[in-house]
Amino acid sequence: MSVKNILIVGVGGQGTLLASKLMGKCFMNIGYDVKVSEVHGMSQRGGSVVTYVRYGEKVYSPVIEKGEADIIISFEQLESARWLPYLKKGGVLISSTQRIDPMPVIMGKAEYPEDILAKIREKGVELVELDALGLALEAGTAKCANIVLLGAAVRFLGIDKEMWVDIIKSTVPPKTIDVNLKAFELGYMA
């Protein structure tokens, strides 16, 4: 199997690292060589975060170059636009419709771009957009929007849904299992 590349992008505090951890565990359980790397810091809540997940028979580097990502999972619209050059031709962008204003917008020095996802779709990109935050709230907490997006991504990974359910059960804190499983199912069905 050739190496598959997944880019997970968002804003600090959104749970991108948990999503990448779950993916890494799942791919390792199947027997793939896996490299997971957080590239941009999340030291401050609100800063841009990107995590590379690469898996296959043999993976030599954790880094995904521009034009190589099979899937980009974006937790926020502006991050979708920022990392779009990394999506390969024929790849899939899975994006939350959530908008989080970056510091320049908060300070009034810039404006948040309008119609980001529509403009991406106009470029011919295969885009799956969903209200991950709304679905997470439906599941019981905004904190599981990451699991909603993971559920949506699973449809493109060709790995049995039940394996993901088992990974979630064995990874998240016991008191959060039910809400995370509900979030996963809502994302999967979306």
Features:
6 strands, about 190 residues, 6-stranded mixed beta sheet, globular
Describe the structure concisely.
The chain is an alpha/beta fold.
Task: Tell me what you see in this structure.
The chain has 190 residues and is an alpha/beta fold. The chain has one domain (4-189): 3-Layer(aba) Sandwich (Pyruvate-ferredoxin Oxidoreductase, domain 3), CATH 3.40.920.10. It has helices at residues 16-30, 77-83, 103-106, 116-122, 132-139, 145-154, 161-171, 177-189, and strands spanning 4-11, 33-40, 48-56, 69-74, 87-96, 126-130. The longest helix is centred in the N-terminal third of the chain and has 15 residues, at 16-30. The chain is globular. The two termini are 28 Å apart.
CATH fold call = Pyruvate-ferredoxin Oxidoreductase, domain 3
Reported CATH architecture: 3-Layer(aba) Sandwich
Main sheet properties: 6 strands, mixed
Q: Which stretches are poorly predicted, pLDDT < 50 over at least 5 residues?
A: none
Radius of gyration: 16 Å
User: What is the rounded distance between the termini?
Assistant: 28 Å
User: What is the CATH class designation?
Assistant: Alpha Beta
Number of strands: 6
Integer tally of domains: 1
Strand content: 15-25%
Helical amount among residues, as a percent range? 25-40%
Total count of helical runs of at least 4 residues: 8
The averaged pLDDT comes out at: 92
The main sheet orders its strands as 2-3-1-4-5-6
Q: Which word captures the global form? A: globular
CATH homologous superfamily (4th level) name: Pyruvate-ferredoxin oxidoreductase, PFOR, domain III
